[in-house]
Amino acid sequence: MATQAGTATYSFTDKTILITGGAGDFGRAVDHRFASSGAGIILLDLNETKQAEVAAELANYKVPIASLRCDVTNVDEVKATFDRAINQFGHIDYVFNNAGYQGAFATTDNYPEDDFRKVIEINVVGVFHVLKTAATCLKQQGGGAIVNTASYAGVVGPANMLAYGASKFAVIGMTQTAAKDLALHKIRVNALSPALIGPGYMWTRQTELQAAVGSQYFDTDPKVVEQQMIQSVPMRRLGSLEEVASGVAFLMSEEATYITGFNLEITGGQ
Ligand code: NAD
Predict the structure, then answer these.
(1) HSE-up of residue 137 (Cα within 13 Å, Cβ side)
(2) Model-level pTM?
(3) Angle 25-36/48-58 helices, nearest 10 degrees?
């Protein structure tokens, strides 16, 4: 019998997960998945309004919740936020290193330099800050698991997304190296590479901005772009946020204790 995504249960009771980008679409789905499985949630984001909304939703689960504003591009803030989280929760077991920015959509010859730097600053340098701080913290505690959000854009360079693709290739590279460096410290490090996931902010944004580029790959009508993208997926549908959360839960779980340095593609067969 087929199971519905989101119904598989791993017990994360008495565990704590720190989630960057915790107020975004993926973060929120993962917050709910772990809170419903008994974990305490440390939700980091830049967007305090969305953080407050998500934290209010999580109150129903009766697990410890902390919502902390943190800009992952600022290493001092990242370190201070981890310290605050440890003081409050005593320990961190899992880190979902997930905050990210999609960047501009433009052909290579038109790609804006300032946006290229912004994408790399958030998706590469920010991910590095969180990965390094998490490694230090989990090492002191004797182990744990980290999942870095990459993207299928880090497996195949997507058209018109020069900076984003480059940044996600880097996330997969950092994952492979960190997994080797941290293996003997009982810290597993894996990556997650979703492709077309929706509905959500990034899905809508990419159909609109790919249409606006007017390249050979997509129509100029975002509604047609949606269909073009869905037709490129062998399963002919978008993945859901719950299916992304299932991948994170699996990689963090006791079912994945010999899996490290792996990039889990969630692509519907692409
Ligand atoms: P989202 O925009 O809904 O969430 C991203 C969150 O990160 C936002 O809440 C934002 O405030 C936060 N953020 C951005 N910059 C930050 C910073 N400097 N410090 C702290 N927080 C910051 O997007 P999402 O769909 O939830 O994406 C989450 C991750 O998944 C990203 O890394 C994205 O690249 C990746 N991803 C998304 C998709 C998709 O289709 N949605 C597919 C593949 C990979």
Answers:
(1) 29
(2) 0.97
(3) 20
Identify whether the C-beta of residue 158 lies closer than 8 Å to the C-beta of residue 190.
no
- State whether the beta carbon of 71 lies less than 6 angstroms from ligand 1: yes
Our answer to whether residue 217 is catalytic in this structure is no
> One digit per residue, pLDDT tens: the chain, 270 residues?
344 666 557 999 999 999 999 999 999 999 999 999 999 999 999 999 999 999 999 999 999 999 999 999 999 999 999 999 999 999 999 999 999 999 999 999 999 999 999 999 999 999 999 999 999 999 999 999 999 999 999 999 999 999 999 999 999 999 999 999 999 999 999 999 999 999 999 999 999 999 999 999 999 999 999 999 999 999 999 999 999 999 999 999 999 999 999 999 999 999
Amino acid at 217: Y
Atom of ligand 1 nearest to the CA of 74: 18
184 CA → ligand 1 middle, Å: 30
Contact 23, 47 (CB under 8 A): yes
Closest atom of ligand 1 to CA, residue 122:
18
Ligand 1, atom 21, lies closest to the CA of 45
Would you say the CB of residue 45 lies under 6 angstroms from ligand 1? yes
Residue 102 CA, ligand 1 centroid: distance in Å = 8
**What are the chain's domains?**
16-196+239-266 (3.40.50.720)
Q: Which of 10, 61, 94, 164 is catalytic?
A: 164
